[in-house]
Amino acid sequence: MPRPERIYRTEAIILRRQDFLEADRLLTLYTQTSGKIRAIAKGSRKMNSRQLGHVELFTRAIMLIAHGRELHVVSQSELVEPFLPLREDLTRGAYANYIGELVENFSEFEEQNEKLFDLFNDALGWLSETECDLRLVTRYFELHLLKLVGFQPSLFRCTMGQEELEPRDQFFAVLEGGAVCPDHVHEVQKALPLSLTALKTLRYMQKQPYDAVKLLRVSEQLHGELERTIQAYIVNILEKRLKSAEFIRRARRLE
Q: Closest Cα partner for 137 from 107, 101, 82, 99?
């Protein structure tokens, strides 16, 4: 991919921010044209800064960015979508943090993936909707992110025997990244039980658009099974647990 111009304009979503020097902020952005980058928003902590409201977490803005040797510089920022519910509601914000952490961990710096940008932007919008199943949004996002970054789980054929799966309870092979039938489960090192209902739900979410998936009514038990399955696979890929996922689980236990 050719290197962007010295100064370029792009849409960006703020993944992470931290104070930098006396009046600046260091931002981790996921951009439409350059993927993940780090940039300085100079003077954004000053009360009269025009950028003040444009550097909140998960804000989407059109930014004018100048390339620097080590860090880029945000020279202008125009607000597009603030996704206010994600900052006003602790639970929604927790799920937004989780999908943001997934984007950050599954992306490389300055590696463009416009489809991932669009998925991330869409997911923040879905989480902001008044009536939404936050866990269903998150599972949908996980499955489609995994597809975009080359780790789509195999859900239609046995990962080991390659035969088409029969309509019965199966297993999910975490290391192999897919469903495995009872006849071959002894061949894998780590497998989780996968009910037929969970398998059908994962298949549906993998193949259908979100507008169809959001109409599903998922029981608490099924939610738990879907979450355990997909997050075990993600932990295996990343070789670590995500802090935001642990926070969501702790918060759920306190409800």
A: 99
Query: Does 3.20.20.140 match the CATH number of domain 87-254?
Result: no
pLDDT the model gives residue 98: 97
Conformation bin of residue 150: beta by default, left when phi > 0, alpha when psi is -120 to 50: left
- Residue 1: pLDDT band (50, 70, 90) is very low
Looking at the domain that runs over 7-81, which CATH code has it been given?
2.40.50.140
pLDDT bin (cut points 50, 70, 90) of residue 45 is very low
Angle at 133 between CA 221 and CA 214, to 5 degrees: 105
**pLDDT category, 35, cuts 50, 70, 90?**
very high
Give tens-digit pLDDT for 194-217: 999 999 999 999 999 999 999 999
Long-range contacts of 37-44 (CB under 8 A, 24+ apart): 37/65, 37/72, 37/109, 37/110, 38/71, 38/72, 38/109, 39/63, 39/65, 39/71, 39/72, 39/73, 39/74, 40/68, 40/71, 40/72, 40/73, 40/74, 41/74, 41/77, 42/73, 42/74, 42/75, 44/74
Strands of 178-180's sheet, edge to edge?
Answer: 178-180, 170-173, 191-194
Strands 60-66 and 35-41, how do they pair? unpaired
- Which residues does residue 247 pair with via DSSP β-bridges, in sequence order? none
This model's pTM is above 0.70? yes
Domain borders along the chain are: 7-81, 87-254
